[in-house]
Structures are given as structure tokens and as C-alpha cells.
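Reopening this one. Same input as before:
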Amino acid sequence: MINVLSIPLYDNTLESAVKKVIQICLNEEKQNRCVSTTGAHGLVFSKENEEFACLLKEFHWNLPDGMPGVWVGRLKGANQMERCYGPDFFRDLLIASASTGIRHYFCGGKEGVAEELKTACGKKFNNFNIGGTFTPPFREMDDEELEKLGDDINSRHTDIAWIGISTPKQEIFARRLSAFTKVHFLISVGAAFDFHTGRVTQAPKTLQKAGLEWFFRLCMEPKRLYGRYSKIVPYFIYYNMIEYFKGEFK
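Same output, byte for byte:
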């Protein structure tokens, strides 16, 4: 792990992360390991919200969802560090686990999205090991509701529960839900559900590699995302510069 804005990020390759998840699912006990795909949005929010920062520090992994986190990690010496983009991590893990018997559960998206994703995974990834789906309400669920959801997830012999909401809600949701589940992993992957069902268009790979996916998404949804990105981009640079000049950039 390498710390970026005080949050430990996974410092290896996407392929290695996929292999380790499968190995754990096949060989180790279920321990409700929480994993986030954390980009600049989550890292900046963690600087302003100590409770959220503490939550991420307790996660099994925080995968670097964006190139800015990877660039900072490499500057700090994590030479093997790669972007573990949520939609790519989801895709590669669904493909790699298709013939293993590892069972998945989808929780997130608007009404019908999780069911669409279940169908898409069969067609695109040849993975039919989807035990169940759930669409969370647009409000905070109470413990009784989470317990009921956890019971459903457990009854379907789930190995990996995928959470597709948005940061920071999805990480908080995953941590709360983990108190009621018996799974190997709860993995939050942001907009992966919408991307793989075709509801949202992904940025071209060239823009992703250049760290400009945020600009593509801003152009696609300016009203919704302008406020977010007008803050995240400069603040991510600012917080890292503060660490550098304080001698804390390590």
C-alpha cells in the first residue's frame, strides 16, 4: 500500500488485484472484506471528513480508481502501481470468475439497473453466477432494512457483494452492510453498473490514460458534475502540494 493524501491505496496491478480476490474467495474464510475504488473525489472528501478518512483506512483495499492517485503513488515510489478503474475491475473479475463458481450479488443503481446488469454479465462476460440484485432507496436505510438485505445476500451463498452507488455513500453503505453479511468481499465500484448496462458512455481509453476522464464526463453531464469537478481537481492538486512543501509527501 502507498499513502495518497493519507489514504492507503493499492500499489500493484489490476491483474494482481483480480487474482488475489479470486484466490481469497476460493481458499479463505468469509470475512466481509470491504474494498473501494477510490478516485480523487474520495481522496479529497477524506481530507475534509475525518470520519470518512477513518472508514477508508479500515478497508481491506482502496483501489486507485483514477490516474491522479496513480501518478502521486508512483512519485512516492510505487513503481508497479496501476489504475484499478472500477468498471474495468468489475469486468475483469466477472470474466475471470465465470467458471469458478464464485457467486455475485449486485446492489445499486436506479430501479431496474441491477437486473439489467445481471443480464449483461451473461451476454458480455459469460458469467451467470449472479445470485441476486437489489435497488437501494434514495435515502439512508435503517439497520432493520440492512439486516433484511444482508439475510438475502447470505441466503444466496454470495461471495462478492458489489455496491454501485456513488462516493462517499457507497463506502458508508458497504461498511454498514458488512455488519449483516457473511461474504468474502463487499466492493464499491461507483458508476460501473451504469457503464456496463450502457446507460452511461465511458470516456475513450486515450482520455482515461491521460487522466482526463473527468473532463469527458463533465462535457457529458455539465449541470450535474460541474460543481463536483470544479472543486475536486484544484483541491486534489492543492492538498498534495501542501503535503510536499510540509515534507509529508511520502
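So the earlier flakiness isn't reproducible anymore. For the record, The chain has a mean pLDDT of 89.
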